[in-house]
Amino acid sequence: MAPLVLALNEHGTPHHWATWQDAVVYKAKGLVVWEMGEFDWTKYGGENRITGETSSISFSSIIAVRGAHHPKRETPTLTNSNLFGRDLHICAYCGNEFHSHLLTNDHIIPRSRGGQHTWTNCVTACKRCNNKKDNRLLEEAHMQLLYIPYVPSREEALILKNRNILADQMEFLRQSLPAHSRLRNIDRNIKNRVPVA
User: Fold this and answer.
1) Are strands 54-65 and 32-47 parallel, antiparallel or unpaired?
2) pLDDT band for position 3 (50/70/90)?
3) For the chain, where do the domains classified as CATH 1.10.30.50 start and end?
4) Yes or no: domain 80-141 corresponds to CATH 3.30.200.120
C-alpha cells in the first residue's frame, strides 16, 4: 500500500490523509500552497502528441492545500482499534502489552452500573484482567489503573488512522501532540513491537 500524503491547511494545521491521486489533483489544480518533507514522489501521465514529452507531477509527503479549512476539534470515534492505539496495546491493569485479539475495551465504571461509553471511562484491558474485574468498580475488584484515560486530540486521531506513516510525517504530527499524549514518545511502527502472545 502506497504511503498517504499528510495534507495541511494553509496555516500548517494537520487536516487529513490524502492519497497520491488526491495530491496529484491538488497540484494540477494549483491548490498546493507549499510543501515539505523528506519524501518526494513523481507521477507520470501520458505523452504529449505534439512534443512527445511525458507529463509528470511531483509532490512531497507533506502538503498545504488551499481551501482546506481549519479542522474542527472533533472527538475521534471510540473504536476498539483507536482505544488500543491510544493505550499502546497495554493493559491498564497488569501493564502487559498484547496483540489486539487478546484485548478488550473495559469500562472503568461498568455500563451496568451507569458508566458511559466515553474515552475517559474506557481503557484497554487484557481478557484476563477484564474477566477478573467483571462488572465491579475498581475498589470492589481490588484493582487500580496504571494510566489515566483521556480523549485523543485530532493529531492523535490522524496517527491512529494511518498504519503507514512516514518518519517526517510522524515528526510533524508529534510536534502538535498534547504533553499528556502516550503517542508522543513512540516509534510509528507500533505493530513491529513484540507484544505478549
Assistant:
1) antiparallel
2) confident
3) 80-141
4) no
